[in-house]
Amino acid sequence: MESVISVGGSIIAPDKVDTAYLQRFAGLIMELLREDERRRFVLVAGGGGPARLWQAAYRDASAALGNKTDDRQADWIGIMATRLNAQLVKALFGDYCADDVVTDPTAGAGKAAGQEEGIFTGRVLVAAGWKPGFSSDNDAVLLAKRFGIKTIVNLSNIEKVYTADPKSHPDAKPLDSISWKDFRLLTGSVWTPGKNLPFDPVASRNAEEAGIEVICASGRNIENLRQILSGGRYTGTRIHA
Q1: Across-strand partners of 125?
Q2: Residue-number span of the structural domain to which 225 is assigned
Q3: What are phi and psi of 71, to 5 degrees?
Q4: Closest CA to 87 of 106, 72, 100
Q5: By the number of CB atoms within 10 A of the CB, which of 28, 43, 60, 112 ranks highest?
Q6: Residue 96 pLDDT greater than 80, yes or no
Q7: DSSP secondary structure string, 116-153?
Q8: Distance between CA 191 and CA 200 in Å, rounded?
Q9: Burial of 216 (0-12, 13-18, 19+ CB in 10 A)
Q10: pLDDT tens, position by position, 156-180
């Protein structure tokens, strides 16, 4: 039994690393691994505060120099932040995570461990950003497709998807469920480096095409995450066909 969890950088490192949260998150995952030896987890780390901070520095310095900013360069800066976060998450799982951090979800996950291409050798696999053009959400979709997993748990700093951005629309309503068609109307179709969305537009399109559902939920609510992973009642938004 495998689960893909996209762990937003906004909860790994909102401004600095949230060590207390990581302890609780890793503790839950290891508890579930001990309870059921068939369980395996694919964890995909986002960039969070460090990504946005370094991207802002790039844009500010470029403007001061009179240079145009390049979205590809901004994306690469964000990708490097995801890889730092992913390496930290991998280290927390010790022997449970036998493979190197995955930076290309289309390559052989177990190749570095001397296994044939495509083998997931441990019980936890950790992945990070791959290349410009989308966020680590899309890497989660590609890995879900690769391992035949039909649901992704997307953890961020929001409990649910809203009908509009609640920061600018106080009358926005939280949603328990929304179709991919309607969700994509809310978020648009264009990816912008550092853009803060419940699930990125490129990942959304690919998830819809692959028939993958996404559960968006607050990552900080560990007991709620337990309910999601155990098939219980949870607080969150299900995005579906």
Answers
A1: 42
A2: 2-240
A3: -60, -35
A4: 100
A5: 43
A6: yes
A7: PTT---SSEEEE---STTS-HHHHHHHHHHHTT--EEE
A8: 7
A9: buried
A10: 989 999 998 888 888 999 999 999 9
Check which CATH number belongs to the domain holding 90 and give it: 3.40.1160.10
In angstroms, rounded to a whole number, what is the distance separating the alpha carbons of residues 183 and 176? 12
Mean pLDDT of 25-40: 96
Mean pLDDT along residues 98-106: 92
Q: Which residues contact 174 (CB under 8 A, 6 or more apart)?
A: 159, 160, 161, 162, 237
Residue 118 banded pLDDT, cuts 50, 70, 90: low
Residue 42's pLDDT is what?
96
Classify 66 as helix, strand or coil. coil
- Crossing angle between the packed helical segments 71-92 and 48-64, to the nearest 10 degrees: 150
* Close Cβ partners of 200 (under 8 Å, ≥ 6 residues apart): 134, 135, 137, 138, 187, 191
For the record, the structure tokens of 163 come out as: 């009908």
Q: Which residues contact 112 (CB under 8 A, 6 or more apart)?
A: 99, 100
Tell me the pairing of strands 151-156 and 177-179: unpaired
Among candidates 147, 142, 118, which has minimal Cα distance to 131?
A: 142
Domain count along the chain: 1
